[in-house]
């Protein structure tokens, strides 16, 4: 988000999912799309099979999408900046970039050019493990496509260099004139149903809705007037910083709505200490999660099928959520609970429906200005949608970037925070599997998804397994500097040598006991995708 | 769009684009031609032949789903020859399967049943001889009864051309032909990803929702459109309920973008959590170290009291809140407003980063 915002002026997915089917080339980097965004992946696969689009997959793991790819670059985990700089080196050296576009739509090109000069394919082969000839082929294929879309996901962002990775991806797209056109763009696929909406709504420490800075006096004044309150000027803490502050004792009370940090945060042992140190913890959720079990008060909330509202999808489309069944027992929709708590704290809130809240949202959130329940009854609208006569925006930055000119960033490669050594010789990378979701509190309750994927597996390359005496299905322990987990081994070529993969859906093998809480310096995203571990047969 | 051509259909002069099929032109002009194998978004294969029409000067009846229109064509969709042929085909389909509507999950939502009724067929002229396959019940999500399969191939094309999972195909030939994964495997023993596209595509009762069996008949179900709660794609779907109980989740191709009716295994088969007995049903307050059931009033009061005390003693920045990428926009908006205006801190975040 921060990376794209710096380059374009907006951190959102630039284009739409449906455009993928009718573009000339798709470059998928750090996205296991078929498992994490299956329906979006169908557009990619149709583009390849029915429309003869080209597909370049860049991923250390042999994900399903590689079967559909024209080219698969298997880089060493955490070397994305080096790889992308290498691609740009070739594109500039061979004069394949879009000179008109670079001249008229962007700034900072000279710095970029200087920065990528030393990233020759031959040098990059040593860092990334990708053959120089493959890197050159990918660079040429991407640059020569008339319209090319880049797709990425957490494989790009969950690194200590996450913001740099995103900026690099943005550099590459701008270099070839692929932003602001149909079928092009830089397209982060959001992992959760309403991550986009939660960000848009200002559930972030430094911004009000629509990314309006809390530190900006004029904007803060606007919200203070609308909300009839005095508002704090200092940006707040991010989730990982909150946990540190709780451990240090500066955060005393927490209110957690619908999150399970005690399974999803990096370095779980630390989160547990943090939560235990709190004077008062309120957790509002649909299940008694690991986090809720530590709370002083637990509030039962209605789930998505029991309330009205809206979600904003990864392509900025605001869509209706509708009441299907009634909530169990005394459970209430989260908005009703917040309203009542505000009233008891002496801050009056009188909303009678989510539609009424949306009416307030659209007066304060310029990009949602034209979004009403009536207009999105039949089909969702993509923001920016400034007023009720605006049809919404399928792709952004058409004639100019949100920030004016697109900004190239000269980025240098930095290795991951923790790399394998003699004691911890393997690299652990984490992610989801098709059949489960996040901390598994929902998907593990369905018989189907559970019979398809009943337990956590440690995916390990056959050669590594043989060396360690690990058999397919055998129990292994995985240990990092922070903890140990035990799970079954899946011996498979999907993992490259030296790298193991685990998902984070199973509390019995909570992989975040192992992961490194090292943060990206800008976006504060933890480095889930790389940490050093040792693997032993149990 | 190709050039416009003029033609006659059922005595009516119509115009159509030259890249349209007869079937498409008919539908655009409100003329009904029955179909079974035709499935939007996939190749027209002309497998079932129930869309036959008479075209003047053609040497036989033609499959309207595959035949492009051309200038001056004179087409009849409702002649005796057409109906006789359609009847024959439907009687063959009926006779070659176990089409017992009494216990069929698709009774009332079956395109073969509709066609039998529309054509006014009392019973087939031929002996009914189902192939006698075992019903596939080896997984809890999708049930397959190939005795009801009419070999229209919609599941095969949905799998290969819509989801592009490339799991299903035809095997064997003639009356022994069947659809399924490679090596005649059950779904659970194949590469199947359980997206369920084949279930939504099946026009009869051959591929059905296993968990929905005997849980409500098509006309008893209420469908409510909503947005899926899993990943960020935001698929539109119908949650089917019966007497307040969730029975199944189906795709709906009329809802358009972003998913055009497609869903994945989570959207379709991982909804049990909603009505799971483990759901929290009442507020809980920790008393003597144990979380104990409480009323909303008790819970609200305790929270208000504690947050007030912490705020007064340590300042508003000693309180932090986590909103949720799982909750609605309206709830996230209210949550950050609550933290900023009611508590007085910007310590609000959610797990977008995680």
Task: Explain the overall architecture.
The complex is a heterodimer of chains A (538) and B (354). Helix content of chain A is 31%, strand content 18%. By secondary structure, chain A is an alpha/beta fold. Chain A folds into 4 domains: 2-189, Dimethylsulfoxide Reductase, domain 2 (3-Layer(aba) Sandwich), CATH 3.40.228; 192-235 and 301-321 and 332-386, Rossmann fold; 237-300, no CATH class; 426-537, Barwin-like endoglucanases (Beta Barrel), CATH 2.40.40. In chain A, strand 18 (475-479) and strand 19 (484-491) form a beta hairpin. The two termini of chain A are 41 Å apart. The mean pLDDT of chain A is 94. In chain B, helix 2 crosses helix 3. Chain B contains 8 helices and 16 strands. By secondary structure, chain B is of the alpha+beta class. The model of chain B has no long low-confidence stretch (mean pLDDT 96). Chain B has helices at residues 22-28, 80-95, 111-119, 154-162, 197-201, 265-269, 296-314, 329-343, and strands at 4-9, 12-17, 52-55, 62-63, 74-76, 142-144, 169-171, 178-180, 207-209, 222-227, 236-242, 245-250, 284-287, 290-293, 319-322, 348-349. Chain B is elongated. Classes of the chains: A alpha/beta (538), B alpha+beta (354).
Which key terms come to mind for this protein?
heterodimer; A: 538 residues; alpha/beta; Dimethylsulfoxide Reductase, domain 2; Rossmann fold; six-stranded mixed β-sheet; five-stranded parallel β-sheet; 23 strands; 18% strand; globular; B: 354 residues; alpha+beta; Ubiquitin-like (UB roll); N-terminal domain of TfIIb; five-stranded mixed β-sheet; three-stranded antiparallel β-sheet; 8 helices; 16 strands; 19% strand
